[in-house]
Request: fold
Amino acid sequence: MSETTSTNEENKLPLNGRRAIPPNYSNNEENEVPEMEAFGLIPRGFNPRDYLRVVDIYMFKDPHELNKQEHHTDKYYNPKLIVRRGQAFQIQIDFNRPYRPETDQFWLEFLMGRYPQRNKGTYIPILIGNVLKPGQWGAKIIHRENNSIRLSIMSSTTCIIGKFRLYVAVLTPFGILRTRRNSETDTYILFNPWCQLDAVYLDDEKEREEYVLNDVGIVFHGSAEDVKSRSWSYGQFEENVLDACLFLMDKAELELSARGNPIKICRVASAVINSRDDNGVIAGSWNNTYDYGVAPSAWTGSVDILLEYYSSKQPVRYGQCWVFAGVFNTFLRCLGIPARLITNYSSAHDNNANLRLDFFLDDEGKVDTRLTKDSVWNYHCWNEAWMTRPDLPVGFGGWQVVDGTPQETSDGMYRCGPASVQAIKHGHVCFQFDAPFVYAEVNGDIFYTRMEKNGTQVVENVDTTRIGQLIVTKEVGSDGMMDITEEYKFREGSDEERLALETAVMYGVKKQSIQDTTYEPQTDVDMDFQAQKAVLGNDFKVTITFRNKSRNSYTATTYLSGNIVFYTGVTKSEFKKHSFSAKLEPSSSSSFDIVIKSSEYMADLLEQASFHFFVTARINETGKILAVQKAIMLEIPALRIKTKGELVAGKGTSVIVEFTNPLKQTLENVTLRLEGPGVLRTIKKQFGRIPMNSTLTWEVKFTPMRPGLRKLIASLNSDALRHVYGELNVQIQKP
Reply:
């Protein structure tokens, strides 16, 4: 007796006074589906074999077959059927005898998760009909031959994204007979940017090829005056990546029934991409020490990170903004949401979204690093995802900002977005999610403020053009740079820009007007700061130019402060201080050169080799201060990649990576990484050291899998030198 009760107990759902069934947020878990579901007592002579029985189901799931071809899923390294929602696909069912529509009745069942429910979209019975209605579940027979039938199945355009289990159910007088659980018939359903009724529909084929199907991209970094680029392998079609992306939604505990909604998916993904507060995918580190992990600059793509997280379930160390954005882009494209990686140059990280970044000057006019808390990132990367926004008024669909880098909390978690780019441009920051934060990142003003002894603040200079001065993404169909600044803001100084700002202020963005402070700039003298191209390990010079437009003679006491900074604009150390007095003749220009020696900066250099120069000049006759700041990137030598022999799919060949140490020191702890989506999985190799001026050569043998134009990406990482990249486009021939 006791044994039977215990088994009954196990079959019962755990009692919970609040819900009839536990939350359903694992795509992986399953329930047991009975093969025979009896309607009552079964008569003694009943034999299931007397009725219509399914012998085999054929899914047409190979990359060259019609389902994957028509649904643009033939690139996924995944043996199961992968289709996009709202578009018909075909399967074939073989019965034990010819199907007789007058007497036989069967239907299909798609199930997801542990507690499938019809009203939640996790249990989907599909009856066989005569017509398929666009955007609704349905099935019809398109071909009958001997014991086989071929079905065309239509999925709903709001269907949940994920992996479904398929059963075929046959009705008999005494009960329902189902096929056995067979993982070979599992079906992944993804978003469909090719379908007009889908929330992620994108109408341009070239854009779909770029934003959904391209598995390599470009990350722009450096600074607005000196844009640098590197390739990143998204690898959304690589083996196990799709399962890893579905696992992220399980990890974020997103209810299965919400997974047809791209807004919700983006919102939870922006939290789970970073490890803050939910043990998400990547642990961020900005402090230049990366013990027990990989330096952010060493990654060449997303695949290693996602697969490591999928297997270990522990945050992968370490990332910075472009790593979070690269992995997020893989996640979005993998699920079928059009996505692109964005770089915002001179991005304001302002702690209280008041559109004002304060740089405090001391009495002499030098920047006081003690008091200055706000920082300007040389650049910051985030993503845009394409979708309709039925939760907002008409006109705010299209590109939405989502950001996986942990900066500020939103509704209690480190996440950001989706925020409509259109709403940000027009100042409608009241529309969810996190629009004020993104608005401040691209629209702040820099105030140079001097603290008087009695505590009053005197604004000496305001820079309205620097923040968000350039916003870019990769061009469609090529590796060039596309300037999208005007999608985020109107031209500086235009009426529309002022109106957008007033709108943003009306909706709660805090802005202190300049009228509140006494501010009269020196208008008749301009100061400019330029640097010659600086190569890592060499001396270079910077030039300060004054233009005196007045008829007066002036003298300017000038301070230059050179700082080694993290790319987030936070100073590590000041390596150069220089002051001089400049005589400014009436109506003329005068230039002053300052040499920066490599011996001054090499010891403290950080991985992105970026400097931040502050120049302040006090006009002695008027007491007014001119101020300018500029980020400068050093040229870091590239890796050279070349291939040996011809490149034919399925045939062994080799690639050679070379690097010459440009520094006047030995490089220690050198690691090389090489990968190419669709060509070779990441290979790592450690080299102890590279003496100065010597060249390292690494040969890798590999067999390319698929023909077509592909890209090889390599990175080198060492204690003294990071952010060394190389890439090569390779054309792989058909065998």
In short: Residues 1-13 have pLDDT under 50 and may be disordered.
